[in-house]
Amino acid sequence: MNGLDAHLVVQLAGGFYLDVAFSIAPGETLALLGPNGAGKSTAVDVLAGLTPLDDGHVVLNNRVLDAPADDVFVVAEQRRIGVVFQDYLLFDHLSVLENVMFGPLALGERKPQARAMANELLERLDMQGLSSRTPPQLSGGQAQRVALARALATQPDLLLLDEALAALDVTTRGTLRRVLAQHLSDFSGPRLLITHDPTDAFLLADRIAIVEDGSLSQVGSAEDIRRRPATPYVAALAGTNLLVGTNRAGFLTLDHHGHDLQTADTSIDGPVLITVHPTAIALHRKQPSGSPRNTWQTRVVSVEPLGDTTRITLGDPLPLGVDITPGATAALNLHEGAAVWASVKATEITVTPAAVNVKSGRN
């Protein structure tokens, strides 16, 4: 197939085991998203040809790059994979122009052609005025653009971005996301974005593959993951509370928690994943009147201001995250240890048949 077809199986010293399989079509961006230590860096090393597979395969545009069963291993410099590393790894002793020319020259391109290609890429990235500078004279955002130009200059079959925005400050990262999104769309091959930042994944990727403890826990669009997170980690990324339990005629018995809920969904019978958006939960200083079906008394564990929203974390019996306005936080006098009542409408609780056993958690 054109594009990338990968099944990465690697056993590392210390007992870590990576086993993930995914494909990326030409012109598609897949984000490999996960916490530190999940296996993302190992995946980068394998695809780039720095670490060989123990099993599985890497096939790029119908060309086998790594297949232990067939004794095939293509070395890194022959893979035609453009990599943008987190630290960029630019050559400090070379100018910006020479950094971008390096790849084409290493592949045998003549110097005039390599220079013309580098100048064109720098112009596309609005960096033509900085071609004579060296990397130490660049800002973080400028260095990121040079690293991207250097990767594209090799005319790669796969563009691999390894935490390419992580070294930038918050303001620069937002600006460069927009620049990167534009240039990703200009690249016709498959693109793999390695990141631990859900914002990068949700804004830049067509699909997202979540890796946890060396294996994929969920693959789908950003909307799929927001609506139906498959694990507590994914729910945390999506800003959604995830619980695990059993649904019987709309009555939810929760695993590991001493309080049950009711949902409007009576069509699903059996083990379920339960999601509750943080904005769907209401907080009260006194027990709400009208006897809502889903109410419980609890205490505030933490209060975290997040700009226009305040994240309230609740304690037992249901450790959930709640998003309310700063005004509501002040009006309710919410602080760590405050006693509150929480409520949620049955119609605001989403249940999904549980395909796998997962531990319950909160965002």
Quick description:
The protein has helices spanning 40-48, 96-106, 111-124, 140-153, 170-186, 198-204, 222-227, 232-238, 326-331; strands at residues 4-11, 17-24, 29-33, 55-60, 63-67, 72-73, 81-84, 158-162, 191-195, 207-212, 215-220, 241-248, 251-254, 261-262, 270-276, 282-284, 295-306, 309-314, 321-324, 339-343, 349-353.
Overall pLDDT confidence: 88
Q: Which value, in Å, is the CA radius of gyration?
A: 24 Å
Number of helices: 9
Instruction: Indicate how many domains the architecture comprises.
Output: 2
> Any low-confidence stretches, pLDDT <50, length ≥5?
355-363
Structural class: alpha+beta
CATH architecture of the largest domain: 3-Layer(aba) Sandwich
What is the terminal separation in angstroms?
A: 38 Å
Find the CATH superfamily of the largest domain. P-loop containing nucleotide triphosphate hydrolases
